[in-house]
Amino acid sequence: MAGFRLSDRILSSSPSSTVGIADKVKRLRSQGEEVFDFSAGRAFEPTPDYVSEAAIVAMRAGDTHQTMAKGTASYRAACATKLQRENNVVANPEKEIIATMGAKQGLTISLLATINPGDEVIVEDPCFVSYKQTIHYLGGQAVTVPLRSELGWLWDANELEDSITAKTKVILLCTPQNPTGVVHSREYLETIANLAIKHNLVVITDEVYERTVWGENKHLNVATLPEMKARTITIMSLTKSFSMGGWRIGFIYTCEEIASQLEKLQQHLITSPNSFVQAGAERAFSLEPQQVVLDYWKEWETKVESFTDTLDAMDGINCYMPQGGFYAWADISSFGLSSEEFAARLLTENKVALVAGSSFGDQGEGYIRVTCVKTRKEVKGGLEAIRSFVSKLS
Ligand code: GLU
Q1: 235 and 112 in a common domain
Q2: Strand-strand pairing, 250-253 and 327-331
Protein backbone atom coordinates (compact mmCIF):
# COMPACT_ATOMS: atom_id res chain seq x y z
CA MET A 1 0.00 0.00 0.00
CA ALA A 2 1.48 3.34 -1.06
CA GLY A 3 1.74 5.93 1.69
CA PHE A 4 -0.53 8.49 0.09
CA ARG A 5 -4.20 9.10 0.47
CA LEU A 6 -6.40 9.90 -2.50
CA SER A 7 -8.73 12.87 -2.38
CA ASP A 8 -11.52 12.92 0.17
CA ARG A 9 -14.00 13.85 -2.51
CA ILE A 10 -13.34 10.66 -4.48
CA LEU A 11 -12.94 8.38 -1.48
CA SER A 12 -16.21 9.58 -0.04
CA SER A 13 -18.18 9.08 -3.25
CA SER A 14 -19.92 5.92 -4.42
CA PRO A 15 -19.93 4.30 -7.88
CA SER A 16 -22.72 5.11 -10.34
CA SER A 17 -25.63 2.74 -9.92
CA THR A 18 -26.59 3.13 -13.58
CA VAL A 19 -23.20 2.80 -15.27
CA GLY A 20 -21.88 0.54 -12.50
CA ILE A 21 -24.67 -2.01 -12.97
CA ALA A 22 -24.47 -1.81 -16.77
CA ASP A 23 -20.72 -2.51 -16.50
CA LYS A 24 -21.41 -5.44 -14.20
CA VAL A 25 -23.83 -6.88 -16.77
CA LYS A 26 -21.13 -6.62 -19.44
CA ARG A 27 -18.73 -8.46 -17.14
CA LEU A 28 -21.24 -11.21 -16.35
CA ARG A 29 -22.06 -11.65 -20.04
CA SER A 30 -18.37 -11.85 -20.91
CA GLN A 31 -18.19 -14.72 -18.41
CA GLY A 32 -20.95 -16.48 -20.32
CA GLU A 33 -23.87 -15.61 -18.03
CA GLU A 34 -27.20 -14.74 -19.57
CA VAL A 35 -28.55 -11.55 -18.02
CA PHE A 36 -31.55 -9.40 -18.94
CA ASP A 37 -30.28 -5.83 -18.84
CA PHE A 38 -32.78 -3.15 -17.90
CA SER A 39 -30.25 -1.09 -15.95
CA ALA A 40 -28.81 1.99 -17.73
CA GLY A 41 -31.04 3.96 -20.07
CA ARG A 42 -29.56 2.72 -23.32
CA ALA A 43 -31.65 1.82 -26.35
CA PHE A 44 -30.19 -1.03 -28.39
CA GLU A 45 -30.93 0.44 -31.85
CA PRO A 46 -27.90 1.51 -33.86
CA THR A 47 -27.29 5.16 -34.64
CA PRO A 48 -29.09 5.86 -37.95
CA ASP A 49 -26.84 5.37 -40.97
CA TYR A 50 -27.33 8.87 -42.33
CA VAL A 51 -25.79 10.20 -39.13
CA SER A 52 -22.91 7.70 -38.95
CA GLU A 53 -22.12 8.28 -42.63
CA ALA A 54 -21.58 11.99 -42.02
CA ALA A 55 -19.00 11.22 -39.33
CA ILE A 56 -17.25 8.63 -41.51
CA VAL A 57 -17.08 11.05 -44.43
CA ALA A 58 -15.69 13.74 -42.12
CA MET A 59 -13.06 11.38 -40.74
CA ARG A 60 -12.00 10.26 -44.23
CA ALA A 61 -11.83 13.89 -45.32
CA GLY A 62 -9.27 14.53 -42.60
CA ASP A 63 -11.59 16.11 -40.07
CA THR A 64 -9.53 14.58 -37.29
CA HIS A 65 -8.12 17.62 -35.56
CA GLN A 66 -9.27 19.68 -32.63
CA THR A 67 -12.11 22.07 -33.33
CA MET A 68 -12.89 25.33 -31.57
CA ALA A 69 -13.33 24.66 -27.86
CA LYS A 70 -17.00 25.55 -28.09
CA GLY A 71 -17.46 23.27 -31.12
CA THR A 72 -17.44 23.80 -34.87
CA ALA A 73 -19.43 26.70 -36.24
CA SER A 74 -21.46 24.33 -38.39
CA TYR A 75 -22.37 21.99 -35.50
CA ARG A 76 -23.44 24.95 -33.38
CA ALA A 77 -25.47 26.30 -36.31
CA ALA A 78 -27.20 22.90 -36.59
CA CYS A 79 -27.96 22.99 -32.85
CA ALA A 80 -29.55 26.43 -33.35
CA THR A 81 -31.57 25.09 -36.29
CA LYS A 82 -32.80 22.21 -34.14
CA LEU A 83 -33.69 24.54 -31.24
CA GLN A 84 -35.71 26.78 -33.52
CA ARG A 85 -37.43 23.89 -35.32
CA GLU A 86 -38.27 21.81 -32.26
CA ASN A 87 -38.04 23.94 -29.13
CA ASN A 88 -39.32 27.35 -30.14
CA VAL A 89 -35.94 28.81 -29.19
CA VAL A 90 -34.01 31.36 -31.23
CA ALA A 91 -30.37 30.96 -30.23
CA ASN A 92 -27.27 32.73 -31.50
CA PRO A 93 -24.93 29.84 -32.47
CA GLU A 94 -21.84 32.03 -32.09
CA LYS A 95 -22.58 33.29 -28.62
CA GLU A 96 -25.13 31.07 -26.94
CA ILE A 97 -24.27 27.47 -27.83
CA ILE A 98 -21.44 25.29 -26.55
CA ALA A 99 -20.82 21.78 -27.90
CA THR A 100 -20.28 19.25 -25.11
CA MET A 101 -19.07 15.67 -24.84
CA GLY A 102 -22.46 14.40 -23.72
CA ALA A 103 -24.78 15.74 -21.05
CA LYS A 104 -22.64 14.80 -18.06
CA GLN A 105 -19.72 16.89 -19.30
CA GLY A 106 -22.22 19.67 -19.95
CA LEU A 107 -23.51 19.38 -16.39
CA THR A 108 -19.99 19.45 -14.95
CA ILE A 109 -19.03 22.70 -16.67
CA SER A 110 -22.44 24.23 -15.91
CA LEU A 111 -21.92 23.59 -12.20
CA LEU A 112 -18.27 24.66 -12.35
CA ALA A 113 -19.40 27.96 -13.83
CA THR A 114 -22.10 28.59 -11.26
CA ILE A 115 -21.13 27.30 -7.81
CA ASN A 116 -18.37 28.07 -5.36
CA PRO A 117 -17.35 25.50 -2.75
CA GLY A 118 -20.06 25.39 -0.09
CA ASP A 119 -22.78 26.73 -2.38
CA GLU A 120 -26.06 24.86 -2.42
CA VAL A 121 -27.73 23.26 -5.42
CA ILE A 122 -31.35 22.21 -5.09
CA VAL A 123 -31.99 18.80 -6.63
CA GLU A 124 -35.06 16.66 -6.99
CA ASP A 125 -35.47 13.55 -4.87
CA PRO A 126 -35.51 11.17 -6.70
CA CYS A 127 -33.06 12.45 -9.34
CA PHE A 128 -30.50 11.06 -11.78
CA VAL A 129 -27.77 9.29 -9.83
CA SER A 130 -24.84 11.43 -11.00
CA TYR A 131 -26.18 14.87 -10.02
CA LYS A 132 -25.35 14.69 -6.33
CA GLN A 133 -21.95 13.14 -6.93
CA THR A 134 -20.99 15.79 -9.48
CA ILE A 135 -22.01 18.58 -7.10
CA HIS A 136 -20.01 16.85 -4.37
CA TYR A 137 -16.92 16.56 -6.61
CA LEU A 138 -17.07 20.32 -7.17
CA GLY A 139 -17.28 21.09 -3.45
CA GLY A 140 -20.94 22.11 -3.61
CA GLN A 141 -23.75 20.97 -1.40
CA ALA A 142 -26.70 19.11 -2.92
CA VAL A 143 -29.93 19.98 -1.12
CA THR A 144 -32.60 17.42 -1.92
CA VAL A 145 -36.22 18.48 -1.97
CA PRO A 146 -38.69 15.59 -2.18
CA LEU A 147 -40.80 15.08 -5.25
CA ARG A 148 -44.15 14.18 -3.76
CA SER A 149 -45.68 11.04 -5.25
CA GLU A 150 -49.11 12.28 -4.15
CA LEU A 151 -48.57 15.40 -6.30
CA GLY A 152 -47.60 13.24 -9.30
CA TRP A 153 -43.88 13.29 -8.47
CA LEU A 154 -43.61 17.08 -8.36
CA TRP A 155 -42.21 19.52 -5.85
CA ASP A 156 -44.50 21.18 -3.38
CA ALA A 157 -43.84 24.87 -4.14
CA ASN A 158 -43.76 25.86 -0.46
CA GLU A 159 -41.33 23.12 0.41
CA LEU A 160 -39.16 24.18 -2.51
CA GLU A 161 -39.12 27.81 -1.42
CA ASP A 162 -38.42 26.85 2.20
CA SER A 163 -35.30 24.99 1.09
CA ILE A 164 -33.75 28.11 -0.46
CA THR A 165 -31.06 29.68 1.74
CA ALA A 166 -28.51 32.46 1.35
CA LYS A 167 -26.13 29.82 -0.04
CA THR A 168 -28.46 28.51 -2.74
CA LYS A 169 -27.15 29.20 -6.24
CA VAL A 170 -28.80 26.70 -8.55
CA ILE A 171 -32.01 24.75 -9.04
CA LEU A 172 -31.24 21.61 -11.04
CA LEU A 173 -34.18 20.27 -13.03
CA CYS A 174 -34.73 17.35 -15.35
CA THR A 175 -37.62 17.13 -17.79
CA PRO A 176 -38.77 14.58 -18.88
CA GLN A 177 -37.68 13.52 -15.44
CA ASN A 178 -35.33 10.63 -14.75
CA PRO A 179 -36.39 8.34 -13.05
CA THR A 180 -40.12 9.19 -12.66
CA GLY A 181 -40.92 9.97 -16.32
CA VAL A 182 -42.79 13.18 -15.47
CA VAL A 183 -42.85 15.90 -18.15
CA HIS A 184 -43.01 19.33 -16.50
CA SER A 185 -45.97 21.50 -17.46
CA ARG A 186 -45.80 25.21 -18.26
CA GLU A 187 -47.56 26.04 -14.99
CA TYR A 188 -45.11 24.00 -12.93
CA LEU A 189 -42.08 25.47 -14.70
CA GLU A 190 -43.51 28.95 -14.19
CA THR A 191 -43.66 28.35 -10.44
CA ILE A 192 -40.01 27.29 -10.43
CA ALA A 193 -39.02 30.17 -12.72
CA ASN A 194 -40.71 32.69 -10.44
CA LEU A 195 -38.80 31.35 -7.45
CA ALA A 196 -35.54 31.46 -9.40
CA ILE A 197 -36.18 35.10 -10.33
CA LYS A 198 -37.30 36.05 -6.81
CA HIS A 199 -34.22 34.50 -5.19
CA ASN A 200 -31.79 35.29 -8.01
CA LEU A 201 -30.93 31.66 -8.83
CA VAL A 202 -29.67 29.89 -11.93
CA VAL A 203 -31.74 27.02 -13.33
CA ILE A 204 -29.81 24.17 -14.90
CA THR A 205 -32.19 22.02 -16.89
CA ASP A 206 -31.25 18.56 -18.11
CA GLU A 207 -33.38 17.86 -21.18
CA VAL A 208 -31.74 14.76 -22.60
CA TYR A 209 -35.12 13.01 -22.93
CA GLU A 210 -36.86 15.96 -24.63
CA ARG A 211 -37.63 14.01 -27.84
CA THR A 212 -38.94 10.98 -26.01
CA VAL A 213 -42.22 12.47 -24.84
CA TRP A 214 -45.27 10.24 -25.03
CA GLY A 215 -48.95 10.72 -25.87
CA GLU A 216 -50.27 14.27 -25.73
CA ASN A 217 -47.50 15.50 -23.44
CA LYS A 218 -45.39 18.41 -24.65
CA HIS A 219 -41.85 19.28 -23.71
CA LEU A 220 -41.19 22.88 -22.70
CA ASN A 221 -37.80 24.52 -22.23
CA VAL A 222 -37.81 26.69 -19.11
CA ALA A 223 -35.52 29.27 -20.77
CA THR A 224 -38.43 30.25 -23.05
CA LEU A 225 -40.38 31.65 -20.07
CA PRO A 226 -40.18 35.42 -19.47
CA GLU A 227 -36.88 36.62 -17.93
CA MET A 228 -35.49 33.08 -17.80
CA LYS A 229 -33.01 33.01 -20.66
CA ALA A 230 -30.43 35.03 -18.72
CA ARG A 231 -30.51 32.58 -15.79
CA THR A 232 -30.98 29.20 -17.47
CA ILE A 233 -28.45 26.66 -18.69
CA THR A 234 -30.11 24.07 -20.92
CA ILE A 235 -28.35 20.74 -21.42
CA MET A 236 -29.29 18.66 -24.45
CA SER A 237 -27.79 15.55 -25.98
CA LEU A 238 -28.16 13.16 -28.90
CA THR A 239 -27.55 10.12 -26.71
CA LYS A 240 -31.17 9.13 -26.20
CA SER A 241 -33.08 10.53 -29.17
CA PHE A 242 -30.67 9.36 -31.88
CA SER A 243 -29.36 6.28 -30.09
CA MET A 244 -25.90 7.84 -29.97
CA GLY A 245 -24.81 7.03 -26.44
CA GLY A 246 -21.31 5.98 -27.43
CA TRP A 247 -20.62 9.15 -29.37
CA ARG A 248 -20.66 11.34 -26.25
CA ILE A 249 -22.05 14.45 -27.87
CA GLY A 250 -24.53 17.12 -26.86
CA PHE A 251 -24.69 20.85 -26.37
CA ILE A 252 -25.54 23.64 -23.98
CA TYR A 253 -27.78 26.56 -24.78
CA THR A 254 -27.50 29.54 -22.46
CA CYS A 255 -27.06 33.32 -22.41
CA GLU A 256 -23.90 34.94 -23.78
CA GLU A 257 -22.55 35.86 -20.35
CA ILE A 258 -22.55 32.26 -19.14
CA ALA A 259 -21.60 30.74 -22.52
CA SER A 260 -18.40 32.82 -22.69
CA GLN A 261 -17.33 31.43 -19.32
CA LEU A 262 -18.18 27.88 -20.36
CA GLU A 263 -15.99 28.34 -23.43
CA LYS A 264 -13.01 29.06 -21.16
CA LEU A 265 -13.72 25.88 -19.20
CA GLN A 266 -13.84 23.87 -22.44
CA GLN A 267 -10.45 25.28 -23.48
CA HIS A 268 -8.83 24.11 -20.26
CA LEU A 269 -10.71 20.89 -19.59
CA ILE A 270 -11.27 19.18 -22.93
CA THR A 271 -9.68 21.40 -25.64
CA SER A 272 -12.60 20.55 -27.91
CA PRO A 273 -15.30 17.93 -28.39
CA ASN A 274 -14.38 15.22 -30.92
CA SER A 275 -14.27 16.64 -34.44
CA PHE A 276 -15.91 13.93 -36.58
CA VAL A 277 -18.45 13.21 -33.85
CA GLN A 278 -19.64 16.79 -34.24
CA ALA A 279 -19.95 16.22 -38.00
CA GLY A 280 -22.33 13.29 -37.39
CA ALA A 281 -24.34 15.20 -34.80
CA GLU A 282 -24.51 18.18 -37.14
CA ARG A 283 -26.19 15.99 -39.74
CA ALA A 284 -28.67 14.69 -37.18
CA PHE A 285 -29.72 18.18 -36.13
CA SER A 286 -29.63 19.97 -39.46
CA LEU A 287 -32.27 17.68 -41.00
CA GLU A 288 -35.81 17.09 -39.83
CA PRO A 289 -35.74 13.77 -37.93
CA GLN A 290 -35.75 11.12 -40.68
CA GLN A 291 -38.20 8.20 -40.87
CA VAL A 292 -35.75 5.81 -39.20
CA VAL A 293 -35.59 8.06 -36.13
CA LEU A 294 -39.35 8.61 -36.07
CA ASP A 295 -39.70 4.82 -36.17
CA TYR A 296 -37.36 4.47 -33.17
CA TRP A 297 -39.43 6.93 -31.15
CA LYS A 298 -42.69 5.20 -32.04
CA GLU A 299 -41.21 1.81 -31.16
CA TRP A 300 -39.93 3.12 -27.82
CA GLU A 301 -43.32 4.57 -26.91
CA THR A 302 -45.01 1.26 -27.71
CA LYS A 303 -42.42 -0.65 -25.68
CA VAL A 304 -42.63 1.66 -22.68
CA GLU A 305 -46.41 1.34 -22.73
CA SER A 306 -46.54 -2.45 -23.00
CA PHE A 307 -43.71 -2.86 -20.48
CA THR A 308 -45.42 -0.68 -17.87
CA ASP A 309 -48.78 -2.37 -18.49
CA THR A 310 -47.24 -5.81 -18.03
CA LEU A 311 -45.43 -4.81 -14.84
CA ASP A 312 -48.55 -3.16 -13.46
CA ALA A 313 -50.56 -6.32 -14.07
CA MET A 314 -48.19 -8.36 -11.86
CA ASP A 315 -49.41 -8.98 -8.32
CA GLY A 316 -47.76 -6.57 -5.89
CA ILE A 317 -46.37 -4.13 -8.49
CA ASN A 318 -47.84 -0.73 -9.24
CA CYS A 319 -46.64 1.09 -12.29
CA TYR A 320 -47.95 3.80 -14.63
CA MET A 321 -47.20 4.87 -18.18
CA PRO A 322 -44.58 7.65 -17.91
CA GLN A 323 -45.15 10.94 -19.74
CA GLY A 324 -41.70 10.68 -21.28
CA GLY A 325 -38.35 8.88 -21.19
CA PHE A 326 -37.25 5.28 -21.25
CA TYR A 327 -38.18 4.05 -17.80
CA ALA A 328 -40.85 2.20 -15.90
CA TRP A 329 -40.92 3.57 -12.34
CA ALA A 330 -42.52 0.76 -10.42
CA ASP A 331 -43.72 0.61 -6.82
CA ILE A 332 -42.57 -2.68 -5.30
CA SER A 333 -43.04 -1.72 -1.64
CA SER A 334 -45.75 -4.35 -1.11
CA PHE A 335 -43.09 -7.11 -1.08
CA GLY A 336 -41.51 -5.80 2.11
CA LEU A 337 -37.99 -5.78 0.64
CA SER A 338 -35.87 -2.66 0.30
CA SER A 339 -35.31 -1.53 -3.29
CA GLU A 340 -31.67 -2.61 -2.97
CA GLU A 341 -32.60 -6.08 -1.73
CA PHE A 342 -35.21 -6.46 -4.45
CA ALA A 343 -32.75 -5.42 -7.19
CA ALA A 344 -29.88 -7.52 -5.81
CA ARG A 345 -31.98 -10.66 -5.39
CA LEU A 346 -33.61 -10.24 -8.80
CA LEU A 347 -30.16 -10.13 -10.39
CA THR A 348 -28.77 -13.08 -8.45
CA GLU A 349 -31.84 -15.30 -8.55
CA ASN A 350 -33.49 -14.46 -11.88
CA LYS A 351 -30.73 -12.70 -13.84
CA VAL A 352 -32.48 -9.39 -14.34
CA ALA A 353 -30.51 -6.17 -13.89
CA LEU A 354 -32.34 -2.94 -13.07
CA VAL A 355 -31.75 0.02 -10.78
CA ALA A 356 -32.98 0.23 -7.18
CA GLY A 357 -35.20 3.28 -6.68
CA SER A 358 -33.26 4.28 -3.57
CA SER A 359 -30.20 4.94 -5.78
CA PHE A 360 -32.04 8.04 -6.97
CA GLY A 361 -32.80 9.35 -3.48
CA ASP A 362 -34.72 8.60 -0.31
CA GLN A 363 -38.06 9.12 -2.04
CA GLY A 364 -37.18 6.27 -4.40
CA GLU A 365 -37.17 3.69 -1.61
CA GLY A 366 -39.78 1.05 -2.41
CA TYR A 367 -39.40 1.60 -6.17
CA ILE A 368 -37.38 0.14 -9.01
CA ARG A 369 -36.39 1.81 -12.27
CA VAL A 370 -36.58 -0.40 -15.34
CA THR A 371 -35.29 0.54 -18.80
CA CYS A 372 -37.96 -0.57 -21.28
CA VAL A 373 -36.25 0.16 -24.63
CA LYS A 374 -34.53 -3.19 -25.19
CA THR A 375 -34.96 -5.84 -27.90
CA ARG A 376 -38.38 -7.49 -27.99
CA LYS A 377 -36.72 -10.78 -27.07
CA GLU A 378 -34.98 -9.29 -24.05
CA VAL A 379 -38.16 -7.49 -22.95
CA LYS A 380 -40.19 -10.70 -23.22
CA GLY A 381 -37.63 -12.88 -21.45
CA GLY A 382 -36.91 -10.26 -18.81
CA LEU A 383 -40.55 -9.69 -17.98
CA GLU A 384 -41.05 -13.44 -17.59
CA ALA A 385 -38.06 -13.56 -15.25
CA ILE A 386 -39.45 -10.67 -13.18
CA ARG A 387 -42.84 -12.40 -13.03
CA SER A 388 -41.27 -15.59 -11.81
CA PHE A 389 -39.24 -13.67 -9.19
CA VAL A 390 -42.21 -11.78 -7.76
CA SER A 391 -44.38 -14.86 -7.69
CA LYS A 392 -41.86 -16.34 -5.24
CA LEU A 393 -42.21 -13.25 -3.05
CA SER A 394 -45.98 -13.00 -2.82
N1 GLU B 1 -28.53 8.45 -18.07
C2 GLU B 1 -28.79 7.06 -18.27
C3 GLU B 1 -29.46 6.46 -17.05
O4 GLU B 1 -30.00 7.13 -16.21
C5 GLU B 1 -27.54 6.34 -18.69
C6 GLU B 1 -26.57 5.96 -17.63
C7 GLU B 1 -25.69 7.06 -17.19
O8 GLU B 1 -25.18 7.79 -18.05
O9 GLU B 1 -25.50 7.19 -15.99
O10 GLU B 1 -29.50 5.26 -16.99
Answers
A1: yes
A2: unpaired
